[in-house]
Design goal:
It is built from 17 helices and seven strands. The protein is of the alpha/beta class and about 400 residues long. The strands form two sheets. Strands 5-4-3-6-7 form a five-stranded mixed β-sheet, sandwiched between helices. It has a two-stranded antiparallel sheet with strand order 1-2. Helix 9 links the parallel strand 6 and strand 7. The longest helix has 19 residues. The radius of gyration is 30 Å and the shape is elongated. The termini are far apart. Required for the transposition of the insertion element.
Length: about 400
């Protein structure tokens, strides 16, 4: 630094006090400490070049070759630095690399964090400008969020445990831009409870439509990643779904969501009859035993069978899959008779994705769901309530499959 460029520390001190009182950034544009930070970075880059220009480089004719200026965004604001150059262009600075415009990793972490909370790129850009006096383009923001793509892919292919006691499988639907059109894509999500009672998001997969054939490929992927057995699978009423599960995991017990069955039934019951019909239906799925449920089902058919033959027929046809939960006690029944566990997860994800009208690609969709899951799963730190008792009962119901670790 030349003599006429020496820092005026007294003036810097006064300016810093004023900016501290007003809450302004000390390092951003016009910040009191901005010249000090610039001086440090410029000196560090000069030292890197000096180290690069060793005797061997100088013998080859390599020398200093001026400087180039560029703006670098930091978590405290934007500063302008002067990067020294060499004649042979072999100098690769480490402190601030060529074409690097974001200095602080903490700023990238903040950007990815805001994106994971559902903020749009426009809102993130405005927030960064307000907080750090730094302008970041949408292209740069998109490039930053894309840095998690390798992490997403690695997570999607990570090994899984050999046994999951309960899994919930369900799909969400989103619009994705494809050939300048908005196409509805299904995201297949799976949440499982491991043998120790911990909730885990096992995977997410994208397809254009929800169907049993694609679910078969999803379940095969779980198997390839190490899953050997699933005790109970909780699903909606998708045709062919149970068969797809039992093709890959033949011993898995299927529980179809009772709430889905009720919703589908009420679509075909006249509005004037719905209240009375539900009053007669509730004793069926709220019964204490399977035998009681069968008796109440007979009563329901006797009263409503002629008027709503197809509705009663649907309950009869799906009865084995709808009533699996009667085998278990109340704590497990509450877990498996509906898909509420995964639907609750979906509601939390939609709070994050609701700001997106459509996604530019399947990966853009998966990227945001993955970040949302990271936030949601921070609460999944404890096993399910009273899991010790539940695990013992599962070990009795599923001998040789649910093995307790009592050592």
């Amino acid at each position: 630094m030349r003599k006429d460029e020496q820092l005026d520390y007294e003036q810097m001190k006064q300016k810093a006090l004023e900016q501290l009182r007003s809450g302004k950034s000390l390092y951003g544009k016009d910040g009191a400490f901005a010249p000090l930070l610039k001086s440090f970075l410029d000196s560090a880059l000069e030292a890197e070049l000096e180290s690069h220009l060793d005797s061997e480089e100088r013998l080859s004719g390599n020398r200093k070759n001026g400087k180039t200026s560029k703006e670098v965004r930091t978590s405290s604001g934007t500063i302008t630095i002067d990067t020294p150059r060499d004649r042979s262009a072999t100098f690769e600075p480490e402190l601030i690399r060529k074409r690097e415009t974001i200095l602080a990793e903490s700023l990238e972490t903040k950007i990815i964090g805001m994106y994971g909370l559902g903020m749009s790129l426009r809102d993130i850009s405005k927030h960064i400008k307000d907080m750090y006096d730094t302008d970041i383009s949408h292209t740069t923001l998109s490039a930053i969020t894309d840095k998690i793509i390798p992490e997403v892919k690695e997570w999607q292919s990570r090994p899984l445990e050999d046994l999951y006691t309960i899994v919930w499988l369900d799909a969400m639907h989103y619009k994705v831009k494809e050939d300048h059109r908005m196409i509805s894509h299904a995201v297949y999500n799976i949440i499982g409870i491991d043998r120790h009672g911990y909730k885990t998001f096992l995977g997410m997969y994208v397809s254009q439509n929800e169907g049993a054939n694609f679910w078969l490929s999803v379940l095969t992927d779980l198997q390839n990643r190490g899953v050997k057995d699933i005790l109970i699978a909780c699903i909606d009423n998708l045709n062919g779904f149970p068969a797809a599960i039992n093709t890959v995991f033949p011993q898995t017990e299927i529980q179809t969501c009772v709430v889905h069955q009720i919703r589908n039934s009420l679509k075909y019951v006249a509005s004037k009859d719905q209240k009375a019909f539900m009053a007669d239906l509730k004793p069926v799925y709220k019964a204490d035993t399977l035998e009681q449920a069968e008796l109440r089902m007979d009563d329901l058919e006797a009263k409503w069978g002629k008027k709503y033959e197809k509705v009663i027929e649907s309950w009869r046809n799906n009865w084995p899959k709808l009533t699996s939960y009667f085998r278990y006690d109340a704590p497990i029944r509450r877990l498996i008779y509906t898909t509420n566990t995964i639907e609750g997860f979906h509601r939390q994800v939609r709070k994050v994705t609701k700001t997106k009208g459509a996604f530019t690609s399947d990966m853009a969709l998966l990227k945001l769901i993955y970040l949302a899951h990271n936030n949601i799963s921070q609460k999944w730190t404890m096993p399910l309530s009273n899991w010790g008792v539940t695990a013992q009962k599962l070990a009795i119901w599923f001998p040789d499959r649910m093995v307790l670790d009592l050592n």
